[in-house]
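Ticket #4471: structure export looks truncated?
Reporter: QA, pipeline team
Priority: medium

Steps to reproduce: submit the single chain below to the structure queue and open the exported record.
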Amino acid sequence: MPQIKIGETVNFTVGAYNSISRGPSQQAHGTWYYSIKGSFAGGDKLQGTAHLIWSMLECWPGSGGVMAITRTGAEDFSSSVVTAGDGQPPKLEEYNAAARSFNTVAPVATGETCPNEIDGTGPAIQIQAPPAGKTTAAAPAATVTPVTSGAYELQDLGDLAEQCMHRASGIMRKFGEAGWDVDTQTAISLGQSMFNQATRLGIRAEKPKVVEEELSERDAAIELALEDF
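Actual output as written to the record:
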């Protein structure tokens, strides 16, 4: 049963992950079925065909934002921003059953990357910016260094995994402080997704810079005295 009936309007709040996930449709062979985590009267996940996604992408408010979605026909939707979120575009993901995690298909979901047919391409969509003065600056990206070649050593993987988990924990902590329901499994899943994407892009954790502390006057005096022995 469609989550949004023809002639109905729902207010949907974009979830903390700010992502769209896709999978092969079980009803219309050869097409994609999409879902977005968030909240609305029908539950915590909005699902539908690419036609719904195309409408939402035209005014995507970002994480925490609210949009009004009206279904006017079998494949016709219209969307508008009710409350702006963080202003960041969504990423497109696909569930990897073997790895039990989501793989990033595109860092920024667009009409072209969200087609209706599995072997097709979607329409070019002009994504509107959220209303001025209502967006929140994006958090600074984790400190990483891209590389073009070279295999990962075990230490490299460990350092990268640790940095991804620290980053994921920090993100979840912020949303927890904002009143979101977060748990350890969610943080682990986010960290795993970040790690998977980083290794596909050849990103390595940047080694921390060692800063030599200046000797205090007392320590300098002790070292000078020891040199006389």
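Status: closed, not a bug. The export was complete when the record was re-opened. Leaving a note from the reviewer for reference: Residues 139-229 form one domain.
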